[in-house]
Each structure stands twice: as C-alpha cells, then as structure tokens.
Amino acid sequence: MSSSFQAPKGVKEYAPPQADLFYAIREAFAEQARLAGYGYLELAVFEDTNLFKRGVGESTDVVSKEMYTFEDRGGRSLTLRPEFTATVLRSVLEHNLHKQGGLPVKVWTSGPAFRAEQPQAGRYRQFYQLDLEAIGSEDPQVDAETIAIAANWYKSLGLTQVRLLLNSLGCKECRPAYRALLQEFLRGLDLDDATRARIEINPLRVLDDKRPKVREQVAGAPLMADHLCGDCKAHHDRVRELLADLGVAWEDTPTLVRGLDYYTRTTYEFDHPLLGAQSGIGGGGRYDGLSEDIGGPPLPGIGFGLGLDRTVLALEAEGAAFAAKPRCQAFGVALGEAAERRVFSLVAELRAAGIAADMAFGGKKLKGAMKDADRSGARYAVILGDRDLAAGEAQVKDLGSGDQDAVPLTELTATLKERLSR
Fold it and tell me: How many C-beta atoms surround the C-beta of residue 200 within 10 A?
C-alpha cells in the first residue's frame, strides 16, 4: 500500500531510471564547466527577499507574482530562490571571490529553484537548473565562452534540434533613449491597466508578454538592435564573430527580451521546437549593473541558467542516444553461505576497481537471484557455489548472449574490466 502523502502539486520528482539520466546529464555539464576552469559553488536555497526585489526587479512576474516568500521566527522576510544569478553574485561578493585573483570569477552551481506558477509539462513550482556565471569582465570573449559551454553541453548529450536565439539589449548609455521611444510607441496601444503600468516601470517587459493580443499589437515596436550605441554594436558584432569562430550557430532575434530586469547587452536563449509552449530550455545574458543594484562594487558579469527538467524532456522528445552510466555492470549470485561471504567481498573488490557491482541479498535461490541480476541491468552475472570456491573460480554469465564460462577468482576483476571495455 502506498503512503497517504504525495509530493506537493507542481513538484517534479525523479525516480530511476529517469533519475539516472537526470544525474548523468548534470555530471556531463560538470565536466564541461571543469574543462573551462569554472569552480563549483554550493549555495543557500533561501535569501533575504530584498535581494530578489532589487536584483531581479519588482516589475517582473517572478518578483510580483511567483516568489515563495515567508517570514521566519525572527520576523525576517525570506524567499526561496526563484533564480540563481542574484544568489551567485551575492555569494561571490560575500566571500570576496572577486578579490582573490584574476577576473573574471568563474563559478557554476546546480539545484532546485522555486516559482509559484501554474504547473504544466516543463513548468514546475520546484524546478532544477544548472547555472554558470563569469563575473568581473566586459570582454566579449567571456560572453562567447559561456554560450559555447552551454552549446557544447547540449551537443554532448546528442541533442540536434537546439536553436540559439541571440540579441543585444544595449547599455545604460543607449537604452534610455530607446526606452523613451518604446514607451511612446506602447502608450498608443490598447493595453490593460496592468500592462500600462509596466510601460512606465520597464517597457522592455511588455515586449516579453506572451499573450497573443499583446504580441500582435507590439509587432511593430521599435527594436533595441536598431538603436545600439557604437560600443554595444561593436560588442555584439564581436560576440557573433567569436561564436562563428567556435562553430556555434545562432539566430539573430531582435525581439528577444527574457523575463528579468537585470539583462544588458548580450542576451540569449536556447530553444527546442519539439517542446511546444515550453520550448525555452535555457538562456542567459550579461548583467553589468547587477552588482551595484544589490549594494556591491561595479562588477560586470554574464551567465546562464539551463533547465534540467526541460533538457530531460528534450532528450525524450528527440529520442537522443545519450544514456546514463549503468548502475550495475556485474551482479554477484551466491549459492550457499560460504559462497555468499566470498561474493560479498568480491563485490567490494569490483567496486574498488571502478566496476559498478551489486549482489543478491537475503539468501535467495538461483532462480530468484538471477531475476535480480536481470532487473539490475548488469551485463554480467558472477555466480559462485561451493564447487566453484573449491576450484578457485567463478562462473561469469553474459546476461545478453547467455554465454557462460569459468574465470579464476584471481583474474575476475581484470577479466570483467576487459570485457566491459569492449
């Protein structure tokens, strides 16, 4: 009988075998980050609410509608993190990582984030992200590096239909004039009161509105790409040149805004067309004024958040060949008490040699133990009985072909390693 309790609505949990895939794609990302010199951060799951109000922006849906905010016993307002960038930057500043060596500070992290949204496939109230940030440099090479890390990760997973959408949102020098122009255009449209209020706070957010009626009206809005200052245009052109040098394809998308207030200059999104309304599987951009917004020194930065949940859905939608490492490669089957003790130590020896190994527990007979071996997904069963012990060997059965042969116990580990490497 199952428990009377269930996970809260909107929480996506992962159980084997899907959880094995979830873990494996995270490990694949960790390797990409390590190769590029990014160190790992383990972060707080909740923060002072004002960090997100000041960092993410009070006009965003994230802050105004979706945060899980509560008051603790000391009367402090705390919020479960709805995104990672503000938390990462706060941690970098708090631990003085920007003062400990050359810039940029290159870090990554992963874990759950929380938004009070209407749950649907690919959009959960507790969702999982991979986050990577490079803090302290305006160099467009850093922009291109972070984008390429994400693109290479998707490629390493076997995903072939991921599109990179790219835009520039300008800077504090050129955006004010564009903002005024955009506000003038938007004020002439037939929009609801809430959207009109947003025009005065952050008009770029109106361009990010997903409602068809609004999207239709803003189709003729002026675009930031046509109003970039010389420095921003040169920066954007250089990023595109560098991506071309790296063989990373992109699509210029002048309407791309994204949903957070802190973005400047380079802004991008990874899109997967097979996922329908939730096709955005990751994205990021530059946030050169965010450090000052949360009380830190001028410290430019760029980074991204990639959705693990949606990446799993994309792999399933494409039928990509990427697979998790097997949880079991060799499965021990003991026939008798003496054999059981020896199998127990053999399994430990195999694990020490890097072979994923398990065994049948509870004194099961041969038939039950072999069923466990099949369910484990192992390639080989290692069968040991009294006669095998006396002969100093084990019976190694290929669970795919059914072939079986005797292998000396002194050679068992080396033999299995050789066969598994084929």
Answer: 11
* Nearest residue to 157 (alpha-carbon basis) of 356, 11, 24: 24
DSSP string computed for 297-362: ----EEEEEEEHHHHHHHHHHHT----PPPS-SEEEEE-SHHHHHHHHHHHHHHHHTT--EEE--S
Which amino acid would we find at residue 52? Answer: F
d(CA 43, CA 247): 33
Q: Is residue 350's pLDDT more than 80? A: yes
How far is it, in rounded angstroms, from Cα 147 to Cα 67? Answer: 28
Which residues, at least 6 apart from 411, have a Cβ–Cβ distance to it below 8 Å? none
Cβ pair 204, 59 in contact under 8 A: no
Closest CA to 107 of 32, 28, 33, 29: 33
What CA–CA distances, in Å, run from 138 to 132, 170, 171, 246? 16, 13, 12, 19
Please give the helix or strand (H or E) that residue 102 lies within, else none: none
- Residues 141 and 149: their CA atoms lie apart, in Å, by 12
Does the global pTM surpass 0.70?
A: yes
Task: Say which residue the tokens 């380079």 belong to.
Answer: 266
Question: Which domains does the chain show, CATH number per domain?
Answer: 18-174+228-318 (3.30.930.10), 330-420 (3.40.50.800)
> pLDDT at position 26, please?
93
